[in-house]
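Structure in, sequence out. Go:
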């Protein structure tokens, strides 16, 4: 029964409020309520304004984060395109270098290869290339730099890659020669009439006047633990000076003759030493190799001692 009375009372009050509102009888009360609540509403709005700014800042930050992410993705795409273009230009330059070497050695067949690894132990001077037996690479083949200088030989060949022993490796030995210029006063004979004894041959033809032909001095270029290239077994009387070029001699059959190795930096002759020794600066930058040329047309003789 009480619930019915409460419901009836609320209904009557509601209808009375609606009628009074339609007749504008409640306007004085509304004005009083607005007058009382206006300062409170202003204070509440002022207090909530920083919170609104913070919310707007958070929303703006989200937009900035998304915009920065979009820009980062665009920059990444452009960088990838630039890297591809640079790689193409690098490959073109490598092929041009190989073509230039090919023109100087028209009888040779050269295979371009990229360096993919280096010996991780640090005990060996070796590099790995992305060419192997499947490309015709075999152990013992001679390897050149992009400019055509000697850098080493194939030590191990696998199906898809191969290891190259550099000439600076302690296990490397190359039969080499230094083309020296005879000193003034030395008698130089042409190959048509070589000297056969200490006495001058009356039938020998003197060399033409002007620059004297170079005299080859043979030695062995070896690597050492200090990452240097040393030319050993040089005759002590050989007139070798700094700056003289060192090339392969072709002796032994493991290298074709005439491939540039480097140049003499210093010459050493110790008292009572049977041979002279010289230090060689390799023409190729062995520490920064990225592309090499494998001389696949030359087959090492692998001569055995008599």
């Amino acid at each position: 029964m009480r619930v019915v009375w409460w419901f009836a009372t609320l209904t009557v009050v509601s209808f009375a409020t609606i009628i009074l509102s339609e007749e504008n009888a409640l306007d004085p009360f509304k004005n009083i309520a607005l007058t009382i609540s206006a300062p409170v509403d202003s204070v509440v709005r002022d207090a909530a304004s920083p919170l609104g700014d913070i919310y707007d800042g958070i929303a703006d930050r989200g937009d900035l984060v998304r915009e920065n992410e979009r820009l980062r993705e665009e920059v990444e795409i452009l960088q990838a395109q630039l890297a591809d273009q640079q790689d193409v230009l690098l490959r073109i330059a490598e092929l041009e270098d190989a073509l230039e070497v090919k023109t100087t050695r028209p009888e040779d067949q050269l295979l371009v290869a990229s360096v993919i690894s280096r010996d991780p132990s640090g005990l060996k001077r070796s590099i790995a290339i992305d060419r192997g037996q499947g490309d015709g690479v075999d152990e013992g083949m001679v390897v050149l730099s992009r400019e055509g200088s000697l850098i080493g030989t194939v030590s191990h060949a696998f199906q898809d890659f191969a290891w190259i022993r550099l000439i600076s490796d302690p296990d490397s030995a190359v039969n080499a020669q230094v083309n020296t210029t005879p000193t003034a006063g030395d008698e130089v004979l042409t190959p048509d009439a070589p000297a056969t004894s200490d006495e001058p041959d009356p039938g020998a033809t003197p060399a033409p006047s002007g620059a004297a032909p170079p005299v080859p001095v043979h030695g062995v270029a070896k690597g050492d633990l200090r990452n240097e290239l040393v030319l050993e077994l040089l005759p002590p009387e050989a007139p070798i000076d700094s700056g003289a070029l060192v090339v392969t001699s072709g002796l032994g059959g493991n290298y074709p003759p005439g491939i540039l190795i480097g140049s003499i930096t210093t010459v050493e002759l110790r008292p009572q030493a049977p041979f002279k020794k010289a230090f060689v600066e390799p023409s190729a930058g062995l520490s920064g190799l990225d592309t090499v040329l494998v001389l696949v047309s030359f087959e090492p003789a692998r001569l055995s001692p008599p």
